[in-house]
Amino acid sequence: MNPTTPLIDVSRVSHEYATNAQEHDLVLSDISLTVAENDVVALLGPSGCGKSTLLRAMCGLIRPTRGIVSYRGKPLDGVSPGVAMVFQNFALFPWLTVRGNILLPVEHLPPAEQQARLETVLTTVGLGAYEYSYPRELSGGMKQRVGIARALIAQPEVLCMDEPFSALDVLTAETLRNEMSRLLASPEHPLRTMVFVTHNISEAVFLATRIVVLAAQPGRIAQIVPNTLPYPRDPDVPAFRAAVETLHGILTHTNLPDTATAPADDGKVVTKVDDTRRRIAPVCLPYVTPGEVLGLIALLGDEPCDMFDLAERFGREFGAVVRVIKAAELLGFVATPGQDVVLSDLGRKVVGASTTEQKNLVREQLLKLKIFELLVRLIRVQENQTLTDEEFLRELQAALPHEKPKQLFRTLLAWGRHAEIISHDQRRHQLRLYERKHAPRTSAHAPTPPA
Predict the structure, then answer these.
(1) Taking the CA of residue 58 as centre, how many other CA atoms within 13 Å lie in the half-sphere pointing to its CB?
(2) Nearest Cα residue to 48 out of 238, 276, 287
(3) What strand order describes the sheet that includes 74-75?
(4) 237, 263, 400, 420: which sits with the fewest CB atoms below 10 Å from its CB?
(5) Which helix (DSSP H) or strand (DSSP E) does residue 412 occupy?
(6) End-to-end CA gap in the chain
(7) What's the rounded Cα separation, in Å, for the pair 2 and 274?
(8) Measured distance CA(71)–CA(48) in Å, rounded
(9) Beta strand residue intervals within 178-219, DSSP E
């Protein structure tokens, strides 16, 4: 093989899943990436950005809709011959012992070779005393060690792992991360190349030589960050903390400004609905619920709170918490200087308000957003002031082609009903403006009806 030829080459790969006979969900869009020998590549990004799908395509477990995945210069046709996979959920056969599970990939080899390899990997992962135990007798950390041993016994050129430590308790995950780091740092160990999926920024910095940051909707490469810290890595040194802070900044850098762009001057007559539709792209309310945002601002005090600390307090994946924070920021309830989240004056007002006052404040902020301006205008231009779900879904697809229209529809419906902007007839699948009694029909910020 030419020394410049990568082990894995992902070229212009896109992938979509069929949600039904008519609709497809674009998960990956135009991904190009190479993995060379001695690379340790982390795939990092928010939930739903296609990390696991990309990893499976690189292993040959799925065939991408478009593009080519090659191994050592040859396009994959089926499972990659030089790649082994470690799954998040252990994937052990309960009726086999530790020995039986680990030997599965090398059953075709002579018994002496099998035994030699088994002894080596059992020593590597520290399971020598559990060779004849069954999975039900093992802890979660031990089960994942079996999964790693099963991958290593095949002597792969590339080890792929899909969030291998996320199902483990904190101490066990830390122990396994340290052991993987020692393997990668050991010149005696043949495994030098790895690709793994993670949502843990510190884990990516601890293990990877390159960190591929993916953006979502659809999944695409936002940035590739080299990591030149020498092994073994110490999370307490300033360089490590600086790398973590850099990745925090990259992951939270995407702003959601609600600014208008001028409509194209193409000589065509542009209606107010068309104008609004053009101006909302690419702005979109994140897929979060009112309860999540209101719960977030209720937790915040007067002091700034670090985003990563908030994720730990919520007990949720970092990317999911970032979406809640961004929604709160879009509505003006918080500010995000650096990596901190700070409650705004408006946010404090919302937290201290009664239920009715809170709804009014949320309504005012929502009606400033172009996406809700489009919704209100679409309803008002209908002859009977009623908009069908199907019509609105079509408008969302036209205005925001890279979003998931049904998920966005559900998000807007939840917020619109919470703030009493719209009402929804589930039987007829129709939307109307909410008719408020004993209160003004619209706030001062509500868009005026079209002329």
Answers:
(1) 32
(2) 287
(3) 24-35, 8-18, 66-71, 74-75
(4) 237
(5) helix 405-418
(6) 69
(7) 54
(8) 26
(9) 194-198, 210-215
| Whole-number Å distance between alpha carbons of 207 and 194 | 9
Q: List strands edge to edge, sheet with 340-343.
A: 305-306, 340-343, 334-335
User: How far is Cα of residue 248 from the mean position of the Cα atoms in its chain?
Assistant: 14
Could you give the C-alpha distances from 324 to 158, 180, 329, 349, in angstroms and in order?
36, 33, 9, 19
* Residues 417, 429: Cα–Cα separation, whole Å: 14
Distances (CA, A) of 154 to 73, 83, 109, 158: 21, 9, 10, 11
- DSSP letters for 42-104: EEE--TTSSHHHHHHHHHTSS--SEEEEEETTEE-SSS-TTEEEE-TT----TTS-HHHHHHG
Which pLDDT does position 298 carry in this prediction?
86
- The answer to whether 214 and 222 have CB atoms below 8 angstroms apart is yes
Segments in the chain below pLDDT 50: 1-2, 254-282, 439-451
User: Would you say 71 and 83 are in contact if contact means Cβ atoms under 8 Å apart?
Assistant: yes
Is 51 in contact with 164 (CB distance < 8 Å)? no
pLDDT in tens, 106-162: 888 899 999 998 988 888 777 888 888 898 888 887 888 898 889 888 888 888 988
Report pLDDT for 275: 46
Spatial separation of the C-alpha atoms in residues 400 and 403, rounded to whole Å: 6
Which of 124, 1, 14 is closest to 69 using CA atoms? 14
- Measure CA 349 to chain center: 32
Strand order in the sheet with 40-44: 83-86, 158-162, 194-198, 40-44, 210-215, 220-226
Per this entry, what is the length of the chain?
451
Work out the angle between the directed axes of helices 405-418 and 290-299 (0-180°, nearest 10).
60
Q: Report the interhelical angle of 389-399 vs 272-280 (nearest 10°).
A: 60
- Quote the CA–CA distance of 365 and 408 in Å, as a whole number: 18
